[in-house]
Every structure is written in C-alpha cells, then in structure tokens.
Amino acid sequence: MNSENEVTVVGFKELFNNKYILLDGAMGTMLQKRGLRLGAIPEIMNIEQPDIIREIHKEYVAAGSQIIYANTFGANRYKLKSGGYSVEEIIGAGIKIAKEATEGTDTLVALDLGPIGQLLEPTGSLSFEEAYDIYKQEILAGIDADLVVLETQTDLLEVKAALLAVRENSDLPVIVTMTFEPNHRTFTGCSISSMARTLSLLGADAIGVNCSLGPKEILPIISELKKWTNLPLAVKPNAGLPDPMTNTYDVDEFAFADSMKAMADLGVFIYGGCCGTTAEYIKLLKETLDGYNIAKHIPKMIPVTVCSPTQSVTISEPRIIGERINPTGKKKFKEALLNNNINYILNQAIEQIEAGADILDVNVGLPGIDEKDMMIRSVKALQGVVDVPLQIDSTIPEVLEAALRVYNGVPIVNSVNGEEKSLHSVLPIVKKYGACVVGLALDEGGIPKTAKGRFEIAKKIMETAISYGIPKENVFIDCLTLTASAEQDGVMETLVALKRVKEELGLKTVLGVSNISFGLPNRELVNQAFLTMALQNGLDLPIINPNITAMTGAFMAYKVLANIDKNSMGFIDRFTDVVLKTTTTSGSSKKEENTVLFDTSTPLGELKAKLFHAIDSGLKAEGAGYTKQLLDRDDYESMTLVNEILIPALDKTGDLFEKGKIFLPQLILSAGVAQSCFEVIKDKMIESNNSPISKGKIVLCTVKGDIHDIGKNIVKVLLENYGYTVIDLGKDVDYQVVVDAAIKHQAKLVGLSALMTTTLVSMKETIRLLRKNNVDCKVVVGGAVLTAEYAKEIGADYYAKDAKETVDIAKEVIG
Amino acid sequence: MKEVKLTALNFEEGARYLGYKGNTPDDTVLKLMKWAENELINTSVPRYLYKKFPIIQGDGGIEVIGTSIVLTGNSVKLHLKNCNEVYLICGTLSASVDKLIRITELKDMASALILDAMAGVAIEQIMDKVENIIHMENTDKFLTYRFGIGYGDLPIELEPDFLKVLNAEKLIGLCSTESYTLSPRKSVICIMGVSDEEIIQRKRSCSVCNMQGRCEFRKRGDRCGF
C-alpha cells in the first residue's frame, strides 16, 4: 500500500547505497578566518576571489565530503542588492567553482540556499509570492547543481515557498535543514513535529537540523524529529555554541566527531558540520563514522497529523472542527465579505478556538465576490493570529489550490467526492501540497441510500488517493449526515457506513453534525444525541459550532466516558462552576455562561442613563447588555438609541479628549463599548431583515512599505462608531489597490496612514495615482511623521492630527 | 551571553507613551497596563547581541574597523567625539509579541493600544539591561548613551549593514524591511561609544532626533524621554 511510511528516494539515489552520506563543513566562518570583513557579502568572492572558495571546497573534498555546498547561501536578489553582481552571475560562478573543485571525484555539488534575509508577512513585509519568486530565480541560476539544499531556515512558510520553487522549476533532489533554538522551536515558533510533517508531505528528500547549536544540544531535537518522519535525517551542527563576541566555538574536532556517535545511534543518515567546523572536523567525522555502527532506519507508523507551524493536532482521538467560518445563511458574514472585512473572520476564529475548536473550517464562497482572492487573504490573515490548523473548504479546485499554496503547515482539504471529475481535479493538488483530504461518500449518482453504497464510494476515494501517491491515512471520509425529519431511516445508514469505513478501511472519519436536526424543534437536543452516537461509532472529526456549549459539552463528556480524557481533567477544567444554558431550561441557578445578568424591570430612563455610564466608563459587556435590553422594548427604536445615547456619549468623550481632560486609552475604551453596542444593533436589524445603516463608505489603509497599523485601526473603530462603513485595506497596501477600492466602493473619503519617514513617499504616490485616475474622493492623511504642511505638499485634502479629528473630517466630507 | 529577562515595567513611562503628560491613568487603564505587563513578561523572548569595534575618523565618516560600515553625519560625529571604540547593539522582544498585539487588536482596541505602548517600554528596559552588561565590561572606560540608527542625521539606510555585521538574522531572528522597519517590530538597534576620557554627556535632545518637526510627543507639548 502506498504510504509515506514506505520511503522512496529519488535523485541522488546512488549515495543511499552507502552506509551514510558525508557533507562538508562551514564556509562562512572559514572565509572570515581568511579575512572576509564582517558585513561584507561572502558570495561576491565567487567572482572576485574564486581561488579562496575553490581551495576551501577542495579541502572538504579531500576530507571525504560526498556533497559540498556551493558558496551561494545568501545569493538572493535582496541580499545581493548592493553587491554589484546579479544573482545569475554569483550563483553561476559559485556552482562552477564547486564543480571545478570536485572534478575527478564522485563528490556532488549542492546549490545552497539560506533564508532571504527579510521576514515574511505578517511579522515582516515580504509576501509568500515574492519569496517564491526570489527562490525561483536562485534555482534557475543554479540549475547545474546536483541537488538543492535549503538550510538554516527558521520560517516554515519560507521553506515551503522555496521547496515549491525547487519542485516547480527543476528536477533536483532537496535536503531541508532548519535551525532550532534551545527551546526546540525556531525563531518564528515552528515546532519540530510541524516541520517534519509539513516537509515530509511536501516532498523533501531528506530533512534535518543545522546551525545555531552544537551536536549535544541538537541531539534531542533529532530524537524528536525522528518520531515524526520516515525521511532520511540530516544533521549539520555548529562546532558547539558560538560566542558572538569573539566568533569562537567551544567544541573541538575530536569532541565533535565523538558526539556524533549519538546521532548515529539514532539512525541519522546525512552528516556534516556548520559554523566553526573545518576540514579537520569533517575528516575526523568520517573516520569516526566509518568505524561506527550506524543504526538502521526502520520505518514506523506516524500518527495522522494536521498542523500549523506552531501547533500539531494528531487525530489519535476525536477533535472538533469549528464550522463557523462559512457565510451560508449568515447575513452578517456575507456583509463582512462584501466589505472586505477580514477582521470579522478573524474574530469568528478566535471565538471558536476559545470555545474549544481544535481545527477551523474556512469557507468564504459567496456569489459576487472573488472567492480565490478572499480565500488567499483569509488564510494569510488567519495564520497570522491563530495557532490551530485550518480546513480549506471550497467547491472550486482553483480556490483550494490557491489556499493550499499559501497555507503554512498541513491543512485538510474539504472536499473531494466519488465523482470522476472531482477525484481527478482535487486529489492531484492534495498530493502536490501535502494536505489531508475529506472524501464525501457521494458520486455522480448522488448520496447512496445504503451504508454499503457509501462504503463503496469511500473505498474508491481511498484507492484513487493512493494511486496519486497520497498516504492512505491522510484521507478522512465523510459518510454524510441526512436530515432526520426528512429521511429518518437514513440516519442509522450514515452511522453504519461510518463504522465500516473506520474499521474495515482503517480511515479517519469526519461528519457535519447539525444537519441532522433540520426542521425539528429544540435542534440542539437532537444534535447532541446524534453527535454522541456518531462518536461511539467511531467519528474522529465532528464538524460543529463549538460556541454552543451543549455540543462541546457532549463532546467532552464523551471523551470522559470513552476513557480518553484521563481522570476527567479536561472536563473538570472546562465545566467546574459552569451552569449550562440549554434550549429547554432558561438557566436559572448559579452562574450562567458568558452572560451578564440584567434586571429586566429597569425603567427606560434609568436604562438609558446606565448605558451612557457604561460607555463613559469603558464597560463593554454592560454596554452591550443594556443596548440589548433597550432594543427588546417595544417603545424604543435602534435609531433613537444611536442618536439619543451612543452619539452623544461618544461626542462627550471626544470633547473631553480634545480638551485634554481624558486621554487616548479612555477614548478608545469608550469607543470599544460603543462598538459592542453597535454589534447588538446590527444583529437586531439583520434579525428583523433590515439592512444595517451606513452613512457612507470610507477606504482606509497604511500605505505601501509601511507595516505599522495600530493607529489606522484606532481610526477605524472611531469611524465605525459614527456610522461609517470602513473598507479596511490593511497595511503595506499597493497604490493601485487603494485606487481600485475607492472606485469600486465609491468612497467619498480615503484615509492614508504612514508611520515612517521612509514610507511618506508611498503616501505621496498613492495620492498622485488617485488624482491621476480622477477618483472622486477627498484624501485625509495621518500618522506620527506627518505634519499639516507636509500633508498639503503631497496633495492631501486634509491632515488629521488624531483619530477624533478624522471623525470630524468625515462628518464634513460625508455628513 | 548573559540571559536578560523582562521584569516589572515602568508604568510612568507607559503612561507617557500613552500621552498622559504626567497625569496618572485611571483604575481601568492601570488595570489594563498591569495586564499588559503580565502578558509581555510571559510572551516576550528577549534576545540581544552586541559587538565592540575600534573606530577611526576617515574621509567619508567614522569607519568601523573590521566591517564595511562607515558612520556618516554630524550628529554621530559629535556623539562619538573622543571615542576610539564603538559598540553595535541590537535587541528584540521577538515575533511572539507582534502576534500578541495582533490578536489583542482583534479582541479589544484599547487593550491593544496599551499593550503596544507597554511593549515599547519593555524593549527599552531590555536595552537598559544590555547597556548595564556593557557597562560592567568597561568599568575602566567611559561610555556614551545609546544612539539609535536613524537618530539625527545618521542614515537609517545603515540598518541592514548593522544587522549583517551582528549576524542578527541568524543569531536572534532580527531583520529589517525594505523601508527599514525592524521586524519583529519591538526591536532596537543602536550604538554606544567607548572612550578612555570622561565623556561630557551631551544632552539627549530633540535637536539630534530624526523625528524633529514631526514628533507626536512634541506635537502635544511633551517629550519622548530621549
């Protein structure tokens, strides 16, 4: 059976007949010893002092290296910017010198690629696509190498960009080594398990660890890595720990070679040295390994795992997939999508994780929006704030592929089904991007009535997946929930099919649960019972709304009863002192979950005063609660509430802020309360089928090149409080994107923010482009580095010194 | 290298960053500042690097020997007067803090605003500790105060070269963007001069600051404390 657990090695295959593979030692520290100045670009020596580079390579070849790394580690267009040579010149020369040094030997030459030197979004400003392009250029320039090595990497997403660039632009094998800190994470927080699962499925030929630490410190990292992959392991430690002051390392060649025996005991197959090591280290390492018994690699079963860079979720016990990021039947969600409101999606994510979701389903399909673009932006934004893995949900293969490309980790694809067209369009991309996949037990003939029919389709999906090279264990089957009210006799068929898939095919199972109760009263009761039945029949991944405590509760109770939640620790932790509110009781005793209790008999005048006070004092939950109470009354309209309480309260705090009586945190606290009141109003209006009111649209962004956005976000909150719809384009926004958004949304006002002197020019350019396109809008600018004079100079209509003043300007322009 | 940890944060500094101009924040805000302090102590992973180099006055500026860096501009010339060595220093609270701020912005903007300000306080306090370590190594010498890259007319464009010399990307995960914003965001990069003679501490002042004329603090009649 085809599985990752059976290793097939391609490319530099012949080397795998050896007992082990020997790499080279350091290049950078060797060059420094030969006088390379700190801060200089070492790769320039490929052209200006090739003899030195060739000499070092030759030393390693003589020491026994079977693969040497060409001097191309930093040869990307960003790092070479000020070097005076092109990427092609530097890499071309680097490979040529290395080939010369290996002439007449069997030693192979690797194109060595280190990190780009800029952080990817959202911490930095480099996009995934640009990172891919930078690596692509390097790979094409180094196509004459025998293999590619990606090393000293710390960001899993950057590695993915690089690995895809290798796969899509060459046939070269790839070794990937990442650099970990003593806490067993990389600088960006990537864990060992996430690295291993992601790179194993993405098609690396060998993975491992290099740099940063010495052999002793790397040993436990390799030991952990081994648990999560069946790929050959590579290790290239430093000569101990560096002293950044003196540039010296504390492990000599004898101790280095000796300590690598422990790696051999773990079955590491590829050995070398990083910073501080020399040809002497490699020579001794070879002597040691030649006379040492290297443990044989025995393939093992690896737990089925989905992951983000920071969090691996093994499907070794039932896990909740949160279903809320999906616009189907949700007006507010639809409106958020139409207005480009990514924060709405992010909040849905955070809420579900706090409620207990282990994985989040992401579906942003809606007629009238560009689903692919929205999916890419949603996935990127989500992985900037959440740690849980994602399930990419779309019916369009192109959308799935776009999301899989930028996803950082091992996601689940939702979904493929038994139709020929679906199988052959979805499964190839699942394989290519190393994902897991949900297979729906339906085909051209619809959903089979019987368990047997669904089981057969599940089997077909599994077999087709295997034929594409997808590990069997990464296929999860959805036996499909039918509605009990319409097809009562089908309910048990689903469960029988589920059980057979689990037991006979040995596959993990997934099921959307809530459909079961459609058309029945007190739906949660039915959902809860069905969830428990399904879990008992072998359901691994229920797709539910985790915000409904009755569902998460049933799930957690099941884990207690099935002896999964040992000593009921998880259950006790979650439910001690919590009294559930269910559809059948109104939750009368003790503490009710997540609600503030209000006295429903409060007179109108008092209620209004209380809401005013809540806004004044920054009391969020209270503000929302009083708003709800006011709106529940027959004699009080939402518009009256806005005009009588919210706006005057905001005006008051705004006024006090202007006079210096209160300060920015207090102003924003009040704005936060008002925001929660508006949310209640919005919900109410949607409930009664009214469109939410808007005074007009304002486009807001932090300009190109600038990644500071807290000031812009504060302005957004205040503008929304005053009833404006804000189209928030985020940070580091291209000039043209601003122009397009202003035209598309017919925005009367465009707000631009910049916090750096170096990005003011972007502000100027954005305004110039707006004017050039004759966009009918006013432009307001703000940010720490701006002055009224400069604002005028770059052609802005207004300069706002703070968020409050932006509101005043919006009132003037839009009304 | 000695481990440097974040401990109690200076609330007065935090209040100043938040624009309180000497006023005391109310209890709600103080409570949030306390919360922010806690979060930052638990979330940040302070890392730093420094290296000492001899310097000489060359034709084009002050040359940092053994590197390709030349410090240009009048303000750094004044700052390093009588100095024969310079420390290049950088430090960061790490990317985990950026993420924490992003998440907090989604939940509550006021908390995020306060967290952002307190993170500014935190990185300065980390740099104070690094500065102390450097002082301990130089008890027989005299040191200038920390002078940031981009202060006065010292070009911010030197930032990538500084990071390269310190090997900051590899050793502490610190990079800069094309527009010279340090990433992770809550990071500092600066120099300190070393002299055998006593340094008449030139007052830190707005006149050497690159924010001169555009400073938020000055706009509201305050000073940043530099």
Overview of the structural elements:
Chain A has 815 residues and is α/β, with parallel strands linked by helices. Chain A is built from 30 helices and 25 strands. Chain A has an 8-stranded parallel beta sheet with strand order 1-10-7-6-5-4-3-2. Chain A has an 8-stranded parallel barrel with strand order 13-14-15-16-17-18-19-20, surrounded by 7 helices. Chain A has a 5-stranded parallel beta sheet with strand order 22-21-23-24-25, sandwiched between helices. In chain A, α28 links the parallel β23 and β24 (778-782). Chain B contains 8 helices and 9 strands. Chain B is 39% helix and 18% strand. The mean pLDDT of chain B is 90. In chain B, the strands form 2 sheets. In chain B, strands 1, 2, 3, 4, 5, 6 and 9 form a 7-stranded antiparallel beta sheet that branches. Chain B is of the alpha+beta class. Chain B has a single domain (11-197), classed as NADH Oxidase (3-Layer(aba) Sandwich), CATH 3.40.109. In chain B, α4 runs antiparallel to α5. In chain B, β2 and β3 form a beta hairpin. Chains A and B meet through β8, α13, α25 and α26 of A and α2, β1, α4, α5 and α6 of B.
Q: How are the SSEs placed, and which strands pair?
A:
The complex is a heterodimer of chains A (815) and B (226).
Chain A: E1 21-22, H1 28-33, H2 45-48, H3 50-63, E2 67-69, H4 87-102, E3 108-113, H5 128-141, E4 147-153, H6 156-169, E5 174-178, H7 192-202, E6 206-210, H8 215-227, E7 233-236, E8 242-243, E9 248-249, H9 253-259, H10 261-266, E10 270-271, H11 279-290, E11 305-307, E12 312-314, E13 321-325, H12 331-338, H13 342-355, E14 359-362, H14 371-385, E15 390-393, H15 397-406, E16 412-417, H16 420-432, E17 436-440, H17 451-467, E18 475-478, H18 491-505, E19 508-512, H19 523-536, E20 541-544, H20 549-561, H21 569-575, H22 604-617, H23 620-632, H24 638-658, H25 664-687, E21 696-702, H26 710-721, E22 724-728, H27 735-744, E23 749-753, H28 760-772, E24 778-782, H29 788-793, E25 798-799, H30 803-813
Parallel strand pairs in A: 1-10, 2-3, 3-4, 4-5, 5-6, 6-7, 7-10, 13-14, 13-20, 14-15, 15-16, 16-17, 17-18, 18-19, 19-20, 21-22, 21-23, 23-24, 24-25
Antiparallel strand pairs in A: 8-9, 11-12
Helix pairs in contact in A: 3-4, 3-11, 4-5, 5-6, 6-7, 7-8, 9-11, 13-14, 14-15, 15-16, 17-18, 19-20, 22-23, 22-24, 22-25, 23-25, 24-25, 25-26, 26-30, 27-28
Chain B: H1 11-17, H2 27-43, E1 47-57, E2 62-64, E3 70-71, H3 74-79, E4 85-92, H4 95-107, H5 109-137, E5 142-143, E6 147-148, H6 159-166, H7 168-172, E7 175-176, E8 182-183, E9 187-195, H8 216-219
Antiparallel strand pairs in B: 1-2, 1-4, 2-3, 4-9, 5-9, 6-9, 7-8
Helix pairs in contact in B: 1-5, 2-5, 4-5
